[in-house]
Amino acid sequence: MASKRGSTSRGRGGGSWARQGDEKLLDKRLCDLGLRIEGTVLERRLSRLSDELAERGFRFRPNYWLSSEWFSPVGVPGIAIPFYLAHPRLIRLEESMMLEAEGSSALECMKILRHEAGHALDHAYRLSRRARWRRLFGSASRDYPDSYRPEPYSRRYVLHLDNWYAQSHPTEDFAETFAVWLTPGSAWRRRYAKWPALKKLEYVDELMQEIADQPAPVRTRRRHEPISRLRMTLREHYQERQARYGAENVSVYDRDLRRMFSDSERGYEAASVFLRRARPQLRRVVSRWSGAYQYAIDGVIEEMIKRSRALRLRRHRGSEETFRDVISMLTVQAMNQMSSGRARYVL
User: Fold this and answer.
1) 100-109, pLDDT tens digit by residue?
2) What is the mean pLDDT of residues 250-266?
3) What domain count does the chain have?
Protein backbone atom coordinates (compact mmCIF):
# COMPACT_ATOMS: atom_id res chain seq x y z
CA MET A 1 0.00 0.00 0.00
CA ALA A 2 2.03 3.50 0.38
CA SER A 3 4.98 6.05 0.27
CA LYS A 4 5.80 9.73 0.95
CA ARG A 5 7.40 12.97 -0.22
CA GLY A 6 10.70 12.77 -2.07
CA SER A 7 13.43 15.22 -1.21
CA THR A 8 16.13 15.05 -3.84
CA SER A 9 16.76 18.04 -6.08
CA ARG A 10 13.29 17.24 -7.38
CA GLY A 11 11.93 16.28 -3.97
CA ARG A 12 10.06 18.28 -1.36
CA GLY A 13 10.68 21.67 -2.86
CA GLY A 14 12.40 20.67 -6.04
CA GLY A 15 11.63 20.28 -9.71
CA SER A 16 9.65 22.71 -11.82
CA TRP A 17 6.74 20.23 -11.84
CA ALA A 18 6.09 20.92 -8.14
CA ARG A 19 5.00 24.45 -9.06
CA GLN A 20 2.81 23.47 -12.00
CA GLY A 21 -0.98 23.46 -12.04
CA ASP A 22 -2.87 20.18 -12.11
CA GLU A 23 -3.50 20.13 -15.86
CA LYS A 24 0.17 20.51 -16.78
CA LEU A 25 1.37 18.23 -14.00
CA LEU A 26 -0.96 15.46 -15.16
CA ASP A 27 1.05 15.17 -18.40
CA LYS A 28 4.20 14.27 -16.45
CA ARG A 29 5.33 10.63 -16.55
CA LEU A 30 5.67 8.91 -13.18
CA CYS A 31 9.20 7.74 -13.98
CA ASP A 32 10.25 11.35 -14.64
CA LEU A 33 9.22 12.71 -11.24
CA GLY A 34 12.59 11.82 -9.67
CA LEU A 35 11.08 10.71 -6.36
CA ARG A 36 12.90 8.96 -3.54
CA ILE A 37 12.04 7.78 -0.05
CA GLU A 38 15.31 9.00 1.44
CA GLY A 39 15.18 12.29 3.29
CA THR A 40 11.39 12.38 3.57
CA VAL A 41 8.79 12.10 6.31
CA LEU A 42 8.08 8.63 4.95
CA GLU A 43 11.64 7.58 5.74
CA ARG A 44 11.05 8.48 9.38
CA ARG A 45 7.83 6.48 9.44
CA LEU A 46 9.59 3.46 7.98
CA SER A 47 12.26 3.86 10.65
CA ARG A 48 9.50 3.85 13.24
CA LEU A 49 8.14 0.58 11.83
CA SER A 50 11.66 -0.87 11.94
CA ASP A 51 11.92 0.12 15.61
CA GLU A 52 8.60 -1.57 16.36
CA LEU A 53 9.82 -4.78 14.72
CA ALA A 54 13.12 -4.57 16.59
CA GLU A 55 11.29 -4.17 19.90
CA ARG A 56 9.55 -7.46 19.14
CA GLY A 57 12.89 -9.14 18.51
CA PHE A 58 12.58 -9.45 14.73
CA ARG A 59 15.61 -9.84 12.50
CA PHE A 60 13.35 -9.40 9.48
CA ARG A 61 12.89 -6.02 7.79
CA PRO A 62 10.69 -5.52 4.70
CA ASN A 63 12.10 -4.07 1.51
CA TYR A 64 10.44 -0.77 0.47
CA TRP A 65 9.97 1.02 -2.83
CA LEU A 66 7.75 3.62 -4.47
CA SER A 67 5.10 2.44 -6.91
CA SER A 68 1.58 3.29 -8.05
CA GLU A 69 -0.23 2.19 -4.87
CA TRP A 70 0.06 0.21 -1.62
CA PHE A 71 0.70 -3.52 -2.07
CA SER A 72 2.95 -6.42 -1.10
CA PRO A 73 3.46 -8.79 -4.05
CA VAL A 74 2.90 -12.48 -3.40
CA GLY A 75 6.25 -14.16 -2.81
CA VAL A 76 8.07 -10.88 -2.17
CA PRO A 77 8.91 -9.81 1.42
CA GLY A 78 8.50 -6.14 0.65
CA ILE A 79 6.10 -3.21 0.54
CA ALA A 80 5.25 -0.98 -2.41
CA ILE A 81 4.30 2.53 -1.35
CA PRO A 82 2.23 4.98 -3.45
CA PHE A 83 4.40 7.61 -5.10
CA TYR A 84 2.21 10.56 -4.12
CA LEU A 85 3.31 10.23 -0.50
CA ALA A 86 6.80 11.24 -1.62
CA HIS A 87 5.90 14.89 -2.17
CA PRO A 88 3.29 17.30 -0.72
CA ARG A 89 2.40 18.59 -4.21
CA LEU A 90 1.52 15.05 -5.29
CA ILE A 91 -0.53 14.51 -2.14
CA ARG A 92 -2.60 17.54 -3.12
CA LEU A 93 -3.02 16.16 -6.64
CA GLU A 94 -4.08 12.78 -5.23
CA GLU A 95 -6.67 14.48 -3.04
CA SER A 96 -7.98 16.43 -6.02
CA MET A 97 -8.20 13.39 -8.29
CA MET A 98 -9.22 10.66 -5.81
CA LEU A 99 -10.82 12.70 -3.01
CA GLU A 100 -8.31 11.45 -0.46
CA ALA A 101 -4.63 10.60 -0.11
CA GLU A 102 -4.53 7.27 1.68
CA GLY A 103 -1.70 7.21 4.20
CA SER A 104 -0.92 10.93 4.15
CA SER A 105 -1.42 11.36 7.90
CA ALA A 106 1.11 9.87 10.32
CA LEU A 107 -1.57 7.79 12.07
CA GLU A 108 -3.04 6.31 8.89
CA CYS A 109 0.38 5.73 7.34
CA MET A 110 1.58 3.72 10.33
CA LYS A 111 -1.63 1.67 10.37
CA ILE A 112 -1.19 0.75 6.72
CA LEU A 113 2.54 0.06 7.12
CA ARG A 114 1.87 -2.36 9.98
CA HIS A 115 -0.77 -4.09 7.86
CA GLU A 116 1.54 -4.38 4.85
CA ALA A 117 4.37 -5.56 7.10
CA GLY A 118 2.08 -8.47 8.00
CA HIS A 119 1.81 -9.40 4.32
CA ALA A 120 5.57 -9.02 3.79
CA LEU A 121 6.33 -11.20 6.80
CA ASP A 122 3.83 -13.81 5.60
CA HIS A 123 5.64 -13.91 2.24
CA ALA A 124 9.09 -13.99 3.85
CA TYR A 125 8.32 -16.95 6.13
CA ARG A 126 5.62 -18.65 4.00
CA LEU A 127 3.31 -18.56 7.01
CA SER A 128 0.07 -19.09 5.10
CA ARG A 129 1.25 -22.60 4.16
CA ARG A 130 1.05 -23.73 7.78
CA ALA A 131 -1.87 -25.99 8.70
CA ARG A 132 -2.84 -24.06 11.83
CA TRP A 133 -2.68 -20.77 9.94
CA ARG A 134 -5.15 -22.19 7.42
CA ARG A 135 -7.44 -23.50 10.15
CA LEU A 136 -7.66 -20.10 11.81
CA PHE A 137 -7.64 -17.76 8.82
CA GLY A 138 -8.65 -19.90 5.84
CA SER A 139 -6.96 -20.68 2.55
CA ALA A 140 -4.66 -17.98 1.20
CA SER A 141 -5.29 -19.30 -2.32
CA ARG A 142 -8.95 -18.34 -2.17
CA ASP A 143 -9.86 -15.86 -4.91
CA TYR A 144 -10.03 -12.24 -3.89
CA PRO A 145 -13.63 -11.00 -4.16
CA ASP A 146 -14.49 -7.93 -6.24
CA SER A 147 -16.48 -6.86 -3.20
CA TYR A 148 -17.43 -8.25 0.17
CA ARG A 149 -20.37 -7.90 2.51
CA PRO A 150 -18.97 -7.45 6.01
CA GLU A 151 -20.67 -8.24 9.28
CA PRO A 152 -20.11 -5.03 11.28
CA TYR A 153 -20.82 -6.67 14.63
CA SER A 154 -18.80 -9.84 14.09
CA ARG A 155 -16.24 -10.54 16.81
CA ARG A 156 -14.42 -13.17 14.80
CA TYR A 157 -12.20 -10.47 13.27
CA VAL A 158 -10.02 -7.69 14.68
CA LEU A 159 -10.69 -4.04 13.86
CA HIS A 160 -7.75 -2.11 12.40
CA LEU A 161 -8.24 -0.55 8.95
CA ASP A 162 -11.61 0.87 7.94
CA ASN A 163 -14.54 -1.03 6.43
CA TRP A 164 -13.95 -4.21 8.45
CA TYR A 165 -11.12 -5.04 6.06
CA ALA A 166 -10.12 -8.22 7.91
CA GLN A 167 -13.30 -9.82 6.60
CA SER A 168 -12.37 -9.41 2.94
CA HIS A 169 -9.92 -12.35 2.58
CA PRO A 170 -7.89 -14.78 4.76
CA THR A 171 -4.59 -13.01 4.00
CA GLU A 172 -6.13 -9.67 4.95
CA ASP A 173 -7.47 -11.24 8.13
CA PHE A 174 -3.93 -12.29 9.04
CA ALA A 175 -2.38 -8.93 8.09
CA GLU A 176 -4.97 -7.07 10.17
CA THR A 177 -4.45 -9.41 13.11
CA PHE A 178 -0.67 -8.95 12.88
CA ALA A 179 -1.08 -5.16 12.71
CA VAL A 180 -3.17 -5.12 15.89
CA TRP A 181 -0.61 -7.37 17.59
CA LEU A 182 2.30 -5.13 16.51
CA THR A 183 0.73 -1.77 17.37
CA PRO A 184 2.35 -0.34 20.52
CA GLY A 185 -0.12 0.04 23.36
CA SER A 186 -2.92 -1.81 21.57
CA ALA A 187 -3.70 -3.84 24.73
CA TRP A 188 -5.11 -6.53 22.48
CA ARG A 189 -5.52 -9.13 25.23
CA ARG A 190 -7.85 -6.84 27.16
CA ARG A 191 -9.62 -5.30 24.18
CA TYR A 192 -10.42 -8.65 22.54
CA ALA A 193 -10.75 -10.66 25.78
CA LYS A 194 -14.20 -12.07 25.01
CA TRP A 195 -13.91 -12.13 21.21
CA PRO A 196 -13.36 -15.29 19.13
CA ALA A 197 -10.71 -13.16 17.33
CA LEU A 198 -8.55 -13.52 20.45
CA LYS A 199 -7.58 -17.04 19.31
CA LYS A 200 -6.06 -15.54 16.16
CA LEU A 201 -4.17 -12.91 18.14
CA GLU A 202 -2.82 -15.52 20.54
CA TYR A 203 -1.71 -17.65 17.60
CA VAL A 204 0.05 -14.67 16.01
CA ASP A 205 1.75 -13.92 19.33
CA GLU A 206 2.96 -17.52 19.58
CA LEU A 207 4.01 -17.66 15.92
CA MET A 208 5.92 -14.37 16.02
CA GLN A 209 7.89 -15.51 19.09
CA GLU A 210 8.81 -18.66 17.18
CA ILE A 211 10.13 -16.96 14.03
CA ALA A 212 11.34 -13.57 15.32
CA ASP A 213 15.04 -14.48 15.58
CA GLN A 214 15.05 -16.82 12.58
CA PRO A 215 16.35 -15.76 9.14
CA ALA A 216 13.58 -15.50 6.53
CA PRO A 217 13.53 -18.34 3.96
CA VAL A 218 12.49 -15.88 1.23
CA ARG A 219 14.96 -13.01 0.88
CA THR A 220 14.46 -11.69 -2.63
CA ARG A 221 14.84 -7.92 -3.04
CA ARG A 222 12.80 -7.92 -6.23
CA ARG A 223 10.68 -4.79 -6.65
CA HIS A 224 7.41 -5.10 -8.51
CA GLU A 225 6.45 -2.10 -10.67
CA PRO A 226 8.89 0.42 -9.16
CA ILE A 227 8.17 4.02 -10.09
CA SER A 228 11.36 4.22 -12.16
CA ARG A 229 9.72 1.82 -14.64
CA LEU A 230 6.25 3.37 -14.71
CA ARG A 231 6.13 5.25 -18.00
CA MET A 232 2.47 6.22 -17.85
CA THR A 233 1.58 9.84 -17.29
CA LEU A 234 -0.15 10.98 -14.14
CA ARG A 235 -3.23 11.60 -16.27
CA GLU A 236 -3.23 8.02 -17.53
CA HIS A 237 -2.61 6.75 -14.00
CA TYR A 238 -5.62 8.59 -12.60
CA GLN A 239 -7.86 7.71 -15.53
CA GLU A 240 -7.16 4.05 -14.81
CA ARG A 241 -7.71 4.42 -11.06
CA GLN A 242 -10.89 6.41 -11.48
CA ALA A 243 -12.27 3.76 -13.81
CA ARG A 244 -11.26 0.99 -11.41
CA TYR A 245 -12.65 2.53 -8.24
CA GLY A 246 -15.60 4.35 -9.70
CA ALA A 247 -14.02 7.71 -8.91
CA GLU A 248 -15.26 9.08 -12.21
CA ASN A 249 -18.14 10.15 -9.98
CA VAL A 250 -15.84 12.87 -8.61
CA SER A 251 -17.06 15.23 -11.33
CA VAL A 252 -20.65 14.27 -10.50
CA TYR A 253 -20.07 15.07 -6.84
CA ASP A 254 -18.57 18.42 -7.77
CA ARG A 255 -21.48 19.36 -10.00
CA ASP A 256 -24.09 18.39 -7.42
CA LEU A 257 -22.19 19.98 -4.57
CA ARG A 258 -21.89 23.27 -6.46
CA ARG A 259 -25.63 23.11 -7.08
CA MET A 260 -26.47 22.56 -3.41
CA PHE A 261 -23.86 24.89 -1.94
CA SER A 262 -22.09 28.13 -2.89
CA ASP A 263 -18.43 29.03 -3.35
CA SER A 264 -19.12 32.56 -2.19
CA GLU A 265 -17.36 33.66 0.97
CA ARG A 266 -20.71 34.91 2.19
CA GLY A 267 -23.34 32.60 3.59
CA TYR A 268 -23.83 30.31 6.51
CA GLU A 269 -21.43 27.64 7.75
CA ALA A 270 -18.97 25.69 5.63
CA ALA A 271 -20.63 22.89 3.66
CA SER A 272 -18.22 20.38 5.18
CA VAL A 273 -19.33 21.42 8.69
CA PHE A 274 -23.01 21.05 7.73
CA LEU A 275 -22.46 17.62 6.18
CA ARG A 276 -20.46 16.36 9.12
CA ARG A 277 -23.12 17.47 11.59
CA ALA A 278 -25.94 15.92 9.52
CA ARG A 279 -23.96 12.75 8.78
CA PRO A 280 -25.64 10.32 11.24
CA GLN A 281 -29.16 11.31 10.16
CA LEU A 282 -28.21 11.29 6.47
CA ARG A 283 -26.92 7.72 6.81
CA ARG A 284 -30.08 6.48 8.50
CA VAL A 285 -32.55 8.15 6.11
CA VAL A 286 -30.75 7.19 2.88
CA SER A 287 -30.23 3.63 4.10
CA ARG A 288 -33.95 3.32 4.79
CA TRP A 289 -34.90 4.72 1.39
CA SER A 290 -32.29 2.98 -0.77
CA GLY A 291 -31.63 -0.28 1.04
CA ALA A 292 -27.87 0.45 1.03
CA TYR A 293 -25.75 -0.27 4.08
CA GLN A 294 -25.11 2.76 6.26
CA TYR A 295 -21.33 2.26 6.17
CA ALA A 296 -21.39 2.46 2.35
CA ILE A 297 -23.38 5.69 2.47
CA ASP A 298 -20.98 7.01 5.06
CA GLY A 299 -18.12 6.54 2.57
CA VAL A 300 -19.94 8.71 0.03
CA ILE A 301 -20.64 11.38 2.66
CA GLU A 302 -16.98 11.40 3.64
CA GLU A 303 -15.99 12.01 0.03
CA MET A 304 -18.57 14.81 -0.21
CA ILE A 305 -17.10 16.42 2.91
CA LYS A 306 -13.60 16.28 1.45
CA ARG A 307 -14.70 17.70 -1.90
CA SER A 308 -16.74 20.44 -0.21
CA ARG A 309 -13.68 21.43 1.79
CA ALA A 310 -11.44 21.35 -1.30
CA LEU A 311 -13.93 23.49 -3.27
CA ARG A 312 -14.44 25.82 -0.27
CA LEU A 313 -18.22 25.59 -0.45
CA ARG A 314 -20.65 27.10 2.05
CA ARG A 315 -24.30 26.60 2.83
CA HIS A 316 -26.30 29.52 1.46
CA ARG A 317 -29.87 28.30 2.03
CA GLY A 318 -31.90 27.06 4.97
CA SER A 319 -30.73 23.97 6.80
CA GLU A 320 -33.88 21.91 6.12
CA GLU A 321 -33.94 22.73 2.40
CA THR A 322 -30.26 21.86 2.04
CA PHE A 323 -30.77 18.65 3.99
CA ARG A 324 -33.55 17.55 1.62
CA ASP A 325 -31.33 18.20 -1.41
CA VAL A 326 -28.47 16.20 0.06
CA ILE A 327 -30.84 13.32 0.87
CA SER A 328 -32.03 13.24 -2.75
CA MET A 329 -28.48 13.29 -4.11
CA LEU A 330 -27.25 10.55 -1.78
CA THR A 331 -30.23 8.32 -2.54
CA VAL A 332 -29.63 8.60 -6.29
CA GLN A 333 -25.92 7.86 -5.83
CA ALA A 334 -26.65 4.83 -3.65
CA MET A 335 -29.20 3.42 -6.09
CA ASN A 336 -26.90 3.99 -9.08
CA GLN A 337 -23.97 2.27 -7.40
CA MET A 338 -26.11 -0.67 -6.32
CA SER A 339 -27.48 -1.18 -9.83
CA SER A 340 -24.12 -0.76 -11.59
CA GLY A 341 -22.07 -2.88 -9.20
CA ARG A 342 -19.38 -0.17 -9.22
CA ALA A 343 -19.57 0.81 -5.59
CA ARG A 344 -16.19 1.34 -4.06
CA TYR A 345 -17.58 -0.03 -0.81
CA VAL A 346 -19.99 -2.96 -0.77
CA LEU A 347 -23.60 -1.80 -0.71
Assistant:
1) 788 999 999 9
2) 81
3) 2
